[in-house]
Every structure is written in structure tokens, then in C-alpha cells.
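I hope you will forgive my troubling you with a question about protein structure. Could you please explain, in whatever detail you think fit, how the C-alpha cells follow from the sequence? Thank you for your consideration; the sequence and its C-alpha cells are set out here.
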Amino acid sequence: MKKLLHPAQTRGSANYGWLEARYSFSFANYFDPERIQFGKLRVLNDDVVAGGMGFGKHPHKNMEIVTIPQEGALKHRDSMGNEGIVESGDIQIMSAGSGVEHSELNANQNEPVKLFQIWIFPETENVTPRYQQKKIAPLLNKNTFSTVVKPKGVANEDELWVHQQAYFNIGEFTETTKTTYEVHNRAHGIYLMVIKGTVIAEDETLNERDAIGIWDADTITISATTGSKALLIEVPMN
């Protein structure tokens, strides 16, 4: 088993006035040659967007983009004709594929919106762009990690999926819990970030926004305290 710790305070940061960002991996003006990506996980940004502001219309290509608002709501619009609100409690997936343009603006003029922006390298390039959005709560079982996003070839018709052998899992713990996560493939690794509370992963204690990467393992032992919430992303390492 191999482990890589990313304490919250070691992340990159930027304040653009309208946007306060924390970068788990090199992004925009933050560059660290030791933190380019974790396997096929390229971006995990922890963003706070000021009221009425946001990411104007811009292009993407050949990237699986997952957005998870934590507080507030985003107003989404894209070149595929999708338009609507993505609020806290939702998860949004956009396969940029052969090319797409979109905007994500704070839907509230007076309150900030807080969100995770996550990019995964696809296993197939230049696919037809696509969009999905769902409520997270119906997908979760308490006191364990529930898979909310699966690979295309594994997901059922009504499930969220991406063009990669990646699994997104969310754990919400109403009581102190010890659980074991089984990795789908020995060639995969997991990147675990604590959203709130305290989680112990393979004897490493993680607090809010601390993260750990673990690979070369078949199973991972995780303990969470009451009130904790965490995001666990499994991705191919090569």
C-alpha cells in the first residue's frame, strides 16, 4: 500500500475578488510539479463564488467535469441547450468530449455559492458531449460510502456515469462508524477528502478538507466520527 497526504493548508490558493479558490492540484496560476494530478483525477477545486458572479461562457474539450455545490446554487447554461439551477444537494456531470461551451453563475445575487469542481481525464476522447444532473440524497445510505457516479459500462440507464473507470462515493455518517472500501481494480487508487468532521483512513487522521491518496491496495479501512462527511473518488492510476 502507498499513501500520499494532502493536508488542507498545503493546497494552492487564489483570491480573485469574485472567486476564492483552493486547489488540490496544479491549476490556473498555482503550479506544483509534485501535485499535477492523482491518476486520472486532474482537478479538485474547492471554490467560493461571490453573489451574482461566476464562470462566464467558456469552452472545454475531452474532460469529464463533475460539480457538487456545497452551499447555495449555480445557474447553468451550455451549448447543448441545457439550462437550469444546480443547487446544494445536487450533483452535475458534463462530458465535454468533442467540445462544449458552458457558464456557471451564482444564482443568488447576495450570498456566495460554495462548490467542488472536479475534472477526470476520459478513457475515450472526442465523444458526443452530454449532461446529467441528480439529487444526491436518494443515492445515499447512511454510515457508509455510497457510489453516486459509476463508469459508463457499469451504470444502469438512470444512474450517473462518466467516460472513465472512475467511481465517485459520498459518505455521510450520523454515528461513529468503521467501514471498509473495496477497490474495484488493483490498478486503481482512491483520493479521499473530508468535507466535514474527522475521518481516519489507514491510520491517518484527516480533518476538514484534509485529503489522502491511497493506491496499491485491495481494501481500505476507514473510520468516521459522528457528523462527518467525505468524498471518495476511485480512479485508474495509469
Notes: The chain has one domain: 2-236. The two ends are 16 Å apart (CA to CA). The mean pLDDT is 97.
